[in-house]
């Protein structure tokens, strides 16, 4: 194939511009799906922290009974408890923010409670 034949397949004009107004828009993540994902992550960290705490306590007791003197498992237990505290704080923070958005307000003129 000669160079003339090869260049014949390359268009000399630039490609047409893309009309972005006809492209479907991809919606951003909604706040409810973000909250659900955050809640799931907090619950995961809570359960994981509980598991680490139990594992660390059990293995710490075994170490204490065998007089090994290792503190590794006690440290794992404390880290699990810290993870649980952090996850609970995140869950409580999300619960407070969602209830603060939906608190009933008293209509002073009619004495009715509205959401």
Explain the overall architecture.
The protein is mostly helical. The protein has a domain at 34-97. It is built from 3 helices and 2 strands. The chain has helices at residues 3-8, 31-65, 72-101, and strands at residues 105-107, 112-114. Strands 1-2 form a two-stranded antiparallel ribbon. α2 runs antiparallel to α3 (72-101). The termini are far apart. The relative contact order is 0.11. Residues 97-115 have a biased composition (Polar residues).
SSE topology:
Layout: H1 3-8, H2 31-65, H3 72-101, E1 105-107, E2 112-114
Helix pairs in contact: 2-3
What's this, in brief?
Helix content is 62%, strand content 5%. It has 115 residues and is mainly alpha-helical.
Low-confidence stretches: none
Q: Strand-and-helix sequence, N→C?
A: HHHEE
Figure out the total of helices. 3
The count of DSSP E runs of length 2 or more, i.e. the number of strands, is: 2
**Major beta-sheet overview:** 2 strands, antiparallel
Give the distance, in angstroms, between the N- and C-terminal Cα atoms.
76 Å
Strand content: 5-15%
Average predicted local confidence, pLDDT? 76
The outline comes out as: elongated
Radius of gyration: 30 Å
Query: Largest beta sheet: what is the strand line-up?
Result: 1-2
Percent helix: 55-70%
Structure classification: mainly alpha
Output the keywords.
115 residues, 2 strands
């Amino acid at each position: 194939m000669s160079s003339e034949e090869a260049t014949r397949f390359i268009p000399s004009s630039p490609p047409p511009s893309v009309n972005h107004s006809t492209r479907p828009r991809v919606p951003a993540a909604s706040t409810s799906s973000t909250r659900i994902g955050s809640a799931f992550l907090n619950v995961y960290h809570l359960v994981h922290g509980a598991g680490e705490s139990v594992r660390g306590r059990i293995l710490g007791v075994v170490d204490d009974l065998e007089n090994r003197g290792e503190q590794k498992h006690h440290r794992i237990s404390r880290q699990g408890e810290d993870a649980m505290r952090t996850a609970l704080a995140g869950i409580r923070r999300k619960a407070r923010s969602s209830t603060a958005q939906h608190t009933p307000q008293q209509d002073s003129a009619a004495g009715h409670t509205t959401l």
